[in-house]
Design goal:
Arc Repressor Mutant, subunit A, 12 strands, 42% helix, elongated, binds calcium ion
């Protein structure tokens, strides 16, 4: 991600051009789309590292774009809104954007927010795709299997995904929101209950000590196994 690619999906051409020019000056690769359908297609094709997304768009709106691109692959989204009240409403809906800016905004502020979002993502690099060990378990991403002494432990797909996400980065504490985003691929408003109950299921299957509860924060797999 030395030169991150940023998709700018914005129908107001003056704003789109100004944002693109500023981001290019900062060293980013920038792709621009003027409406919802083209924006989704652009994200599928270029797999950007971050998306700057206007809410009001022709075709379908930014909410629908956000849903579609997040379904494909989680990507940080900076949403552009017309009013602060619109931002409040969207945050309440939990539509999956990571940050919001109300128009008009300063290009300097936009660049700062883009950099902050990219830094946050880089703290959590992609997990390995080869088999690795955690404690007495073998986690096999290719087969999506967990084994203990050659014996396969049956996990549901979402349980596997949750374990894999945590175990691939031992010692890293994930908040419930991060797990919702990474494992479930979205950020709904319903909070951490889903995460808690799946962690409970994993503990029943794998033993109580693997997944550590970090009180008031979230969950982690101990560095160095358990
Ligand atoms: Ca617009």
């Amino acid at each position: 991600m030395e030169f991150p690619t940023i998709a700018v999906i914005e129908d107001e051409s003056i704003i789109a051009a100004a944002v693109a020019a500023r981001l290019r000056r900062e060293g980013f690769r920038v792709e621009v789309a003027p409406d919802g359908p083209t924006g989704v297609e652009l994200c599928e094709r270029t797999r950007p590292d971050l998306v700057v997304l206007d809410v009001m768009l022709p075709g379908f709106d930014g909410l629908e774009v956000c849903r579609r691109i997040q379904r494909e692959r989680p990507v940080p989204v900076l949403m552009l809104t017309a009013r602060d009240s619109e931002t409040d409403m969207l945050v309440g809906l939990g539509i999956g954007a990571d940050d919001y800016m109300t128009k008009p905004f300063s290009p300097r502020e936009l660049v700062a927010r883009v950099r902050a979002l990219l830094r946050r993502v880089r703290k959590f690099p992609s997990p390995p795709d080869t088999t690795f060990r955690v404690g007495n378990l073998e986690v096999d991403p290719a087969r999506r299997q967990v084994r203990r002494e050659e014996e396969v432990i049956h996990l549901t797909p979402i349980e596997f995904e949750l374990l894999y996400t945590l175990a691939a980065r031992p010692g890293v504490v994930f908040t419930r929101e991060q797990l919702l985003s990474e494992v479930w691929g979205y950020r709904e408003g319903f909070g951490g209950r889903t995460v808690d109950s799946h962690v409970g299921a994993l503990r029943r299957k794998l033993g109580p000590d693997l997944l550590r509860t970090v009180h008031g924060v979230g969950y982690a797999v101990e560095a160095g196994g358990y």
